[in-house]
Specification:
alpha+beta; OB fold (Dihydrolipoamide Acetyltransferase, E2P)
Length: 100
């Protein structure tokens, strides 16, 4: 009986932690494509705050892209939502979607 309660508690903690991680990972930032440099694998985005990167204010900046194929999904002027993270090569866009 005690082992069952212990295991239930462990499972509840694990589910809570995985849900929090999924929510943090799913944070998308709104932005607008200002420039695309396919040869360098970079995109310039005007964006709002990116809380996961401790950026409390919006700005326009150049990002590397994790997969250069992402650059073919968007064009200058498109409104987008994206995820970015710090990588060894610099701040990198890991996901990008056109807004409807």
């Amino acid at each position: 009986m005690m082992i069952r309660k212990f295991m239930t508690g462990i499972l509840a903690i694990a589910l809570t932690l995985s849900s929090a991680a999924a929510m943090a990972q799913a944070e998308m930032t709104k932005g607008e494509v200002k420039k695309i440099d396919e040869s360098a694998g970079k995109i310039t985005l005007k964006h709002g705050p990116i809380k996961s990167l401790d950026m409390d204010e919006g700005m326009t900046m150049v990002f590397r892209v994790q997969d250069p194929a992402m650059l073919k999904q968007v064009k200058v002027g498109d409104k987008v939502q994206f995820q970015a993270e710090r990588a060894t090569a610099g701040i990198t866009v890991t996901k990008i979607e056109k807004q409807k």
